[in-house]
Amino acid sequence: MTIRLWWIRPEDFKASPAALALLSPEERQQQQRFIPPAKRHEYLVTRVLVRSVLGEMLGTAPENLRFVLNDWGRPALAPESTIAPLHFNISHTEGLIVCLVSDEHQVGVDTEHLDRASTLLKLAPDVFAPDELRELRALTEYEQPQRAVLLWTLKESYIKARGMGLSMPLDSFAFRFDQSNIILELANPLEDDQTCWKFETHQLGSHIISATLSLHGQKKQVESRINIAEFTSRG
Ligand SMILES: CC(C)(COP(=O)(O)OP(=O)(O)OC[C@H]1O[C@@H](n2cnc3c(N)ncnc32)[C@H](O)[C@@H]1OP(=O)(O)O)[C@@H](O)C(=O)NCCC(=O)NCCS
């Protein structure tokens, strides 16, 4: 069983013709549409990261992988690119790109810089559930920024694991912190089994990363934690 979180700082990756050659013609076109150079570079590094790690796991040349999108835009490997299930999810923000991969669990991942805290604290009543908001406001001024980013990335990683994007209202579920456990509470428990998810959070420098694993149809105790690895440039 593999659950690995790959990360790379885009500034550590040197763009090269070899790296660009890993992208499909559509991806190369898409890359050219980004005007800011940083966004263009981020797009390239993301594609190289995803194609390289999945290609290595599948024993397939990265440039030969094909992807499809679900109705809400989540990319997955096209059926012809893989025989066994291989789940992945991507998140990119300024200064960090992450890709969570599992051969067993559907996954979701989100990362944000702690700099986002002030925006999130302003948006808190709109983006957090009432219980989350109450717990957030009970914290000290010093603790609130970290909690806001933690909550936001957890919510996004859960939404992304479900694959439905923002069609899921952000206040329809809440996260509670019970010592070292992260507990999901759904406004309508009939929509999903809230005990069928495992959550993990990590901090890498000033970035928070939250990961969600689906345990649906599997035993609820996943012993192994997520293995974190830096993706080093092969471009
Ligand atoms: C996918 C979504 C949930 C997260 O996007 P995001 O946090 O902006 O961006 P991330 O970098 O974390 O994730 C983007 C990646 O998620 C993946 N993704 C796209 N749609 C997805 C979906 N429905 N489910 C899961 N993953 C999805 C893609 O791989 C995408 O990267 P790519 O386009 O390079 O392939 C998106 O629906 C969204 O718009 N979120 C809201 C952002 C927002 O409103 N922010 C303002 C409040 S502070």
From TrEMBL:
Annotated InterPro entries: 4-PPantetheinyl_Trfase_dom, 4-PPantetheinyl_Trfase_dom_sf, AASDHPPT_N, P-Pant_transferase_sf
4'-phosphopantetheinyl transferase domain span: 106-210
Domain 4'-phosphopantetheinyl transferase N-terminal span(s) in chain numbering: 18-103
An example molecular function term from Gene Ontology annotations: magnesium ion binding
GO CC terms of this entry: cytosol
Pfam family, one: ACPS
UniProt GO BP: lysine biosynthetic process via aminoadipic acid
Keywords noted in UniProt: Transferase
Protein origin, superkingdom: Bacteria
Range of residues in the leader sequence: none
Family recorded in the similarity comment: Belongs to the P-Pant transferase superfamily. Gsp/Sfp/HetI/AcpT family.
Name this protein carries in UniProt: 4'-phosphopantetheinyl transferase superfamily protein
Organism this protein belongs to: Candidatus Dechloromonas phosphorivorans
